[in-house]
Design a protein that fits this description.
The structure holds two protein chains of two kinds. By secondary structure, chain A is an alpha+beta fold. Helix content of chain A is about 35%, strand content about 30%. The chains are: A alpha+beta, B alpha+beta.
Chain lengths: ~325, ~140
């Protein structure tokens, strides 16, 4: 019992971020080479592809990495397919029969598209990762839920819109998002660009939960949040996963303060960032201004920023580390 | 009075116990004796090599172009357009063939002597398709103009 209390106290005092660091001793260069060697492979023979990708890799995490990375860097996101599906799903939202008919019809389209053109939408990524991991005897699951990005209707997400993966390695579950790791969609041209983001591989569950809300509670893996808290959370971007271990404060996207008050931002960093690199982009609806936060404090890996707002108004506040857009908040400044 | 009652009860259950353990003992011995015989037939049949042919279809009996691999190896083949295949390697009893196809449940089949022609039906995998693509476009508040 004494030990248990000790453990509890320990957990509260020292926050540990173990996900990727569980495997910091592993050199993934061999897995990366296998992925490059399979660059032009197609999906006609999955068992053979999985064999090639995992050849000579001794650990499960390397074997999984090779499969996951191949999917992320070889399968592209089909925005038209996404739009078509979203339209129909919204249309049939309250008609379960029509929705399930649409689903089975769309399923066929999806798999044809995946096989022929190596294009899909996010469930396709998650499904393929699971299917290929299964062929390598790895225990991988598809997780369905809500994904929150800057362009989704962020204040009210009505229906599940995203899928990702959970993978069991050495008896412990981890989270990955192959769709978002794969690349970015240009919202204007609908064009997809491959741009692999390592941050979505074995992500920190707490950071992940800011913009991933699983339908099944167990896939939070750690602390669960409520759906309301999820909808109120700040918008974080893909680049946040490259720079942060945790987003601590503010917990809510919409902030309200009085003139000359300070707003505090707190993060736990994955890698050090200098004061010079940090700036805020403050947008009042007419124009945006690049400013330095009023104060910067780095203590170990914890970063605290403060910013004082001196004029009344309503602002979109974007936090940047260098070129990387990390997060957005709205601030109502009253007199 | 009470003790007497218990002792008869004890004696009764002991007898019953002896009877059951006796039966169980005979059963155990029977198992031990018969086991080697099983093992021998097993051994005989594992040496036998089986050429496996077959056809793969979906649930609507349409031929399916699936991949087939021998579990634990890289030996494999694919079905022809009409769904038929001949496995390139002679198989033994208890070998497992894995049938894969995108969008269909992966199916495993254990080979026994009777399995020289396999008729495999693969069921469609029900996947609810969702998709929110990743964007790095900064969030913009909707404002009243």
């Amino acid at each position: 019992m004494k030990n248990l209390w000790f453990l509890i106290v320990f957990l509260f005092v020292f926050k540990v971020y173990p996900q990727q660091s569980d495997f910091s001793h592993i050199d993934f260069s061999k897995a990366d080479r296998n992925v490059l060697a399979c660059k032009n492979e197609n999906l006609n023979n999955l068992p053979q592809l999985v064999d090639k990708l995992t050849a000579g890799l001794p650990t499960d995490v390397e074997r999984f990495k090779a499969i996951y990375l191949w999917v992320c860097t070889n399968i592209s996101n089909d925005y038209n397919l996404f739009l078509r599906n979203e339209r129909k799903r919204n249309k049939f939202q309250n008609d379960s029969l029509k929705l399930s008919n649409w689903n089975s019809q769309f399923n066929k389209t999806i798999f044809r598209e995946l096989l022929k053109n190596k294009k899909t939408i996010c469930t396709g990524y998650a499904y393929l990762v699971k299917k290929m991991a299964g062929l390598a005897n790895l225990n991988c699951e598809v997780v369905h839920g809500y994904g929150r990005t800057s362009t989704t209707n962020i204040d009210k997400l009505e229906a599940p819109n995203h899928s990702w993966n959970a993978i069991e390695l050495n008896g412990k579950w981890y989270l990955c998002d192959p769709t978002w790791a794969s690349g970015l969609q240009n919202a204007e041209t609908f064009e997809f660009n491959f741009q692999y983001n390592e941050g979505f591989f074995l992500s920190e569950p707490e950071l992940f939960a800011i913009n991933h809300f699983p339908i099944e509670e167990k896939w939070f893996l750690e602390n669960t949040t409520t759906f309301d808290a999820f909808l109120e959370a700040p918008v974080i971007y893909g680049k946040a996963y490259k720079n942060l271990l945790a987003h601590t404060t503010p917990k809510k996207m919409h902030q309200s303060i009085t003139k000359h008050d300070k707003l505090t931002f707190e993060y736990v960093l994955l890698k050090p960032v200098t004061q010079k690199e940090i700036h805020l982009l403050i947008d009042n609806g007419h124009h945006s201004k690049k400013v330095k936060p009023t104060s910067y404090l780095l203590k170990g890996s914890s970063l605290t920023l403060e910013h004082q707002f001196n004029s009344k108004g309503f602002y979109d506040v974007h936090v940047y580390f260098g070129e990387d857009l990390i997060s957005t908040y709205t601030v109502m400044v009253k007199s | 009075m009470k003790t007497h009652f218990t002792s008869t009860h004890d004696r009764f259950s002991l007898k019953k116990l002896a009877k059951t353990t006796g039966l169980f003992g005979i059963f155990m011995i029977a198992l031990l004796v018969s086991n080697p015989i099983y093992a021998q037939t097993d051994k005989a049949s594992t040496n036998e090599e089986i050429t496996v042919k077959g056809v793969v279809k979906d649930e609507f009996s349409q031929p399916l172009e699936a991949n087939i691999t021998l579990k634990g190896t890289t030996v494999g083949t694919s079905t022809d357009k009409d769904g038929t295949f001949t496995f390139p390697k002679e198989l033994k009893k208890n070998d497992i063939l894995i049938f894969t196809h995108l969008g269909f449940n992966t199916t495993e089949i254990k080979i026994n002597e009777k399995h020289t022609f396999l008729e495999v039906t693969m069921g469609t995998e029900v996947v609810e398709m969702l998709g929110a693509p990743e964007v790095d476009k900064p969030y913009k508040s909707k404002r009243n103009k």
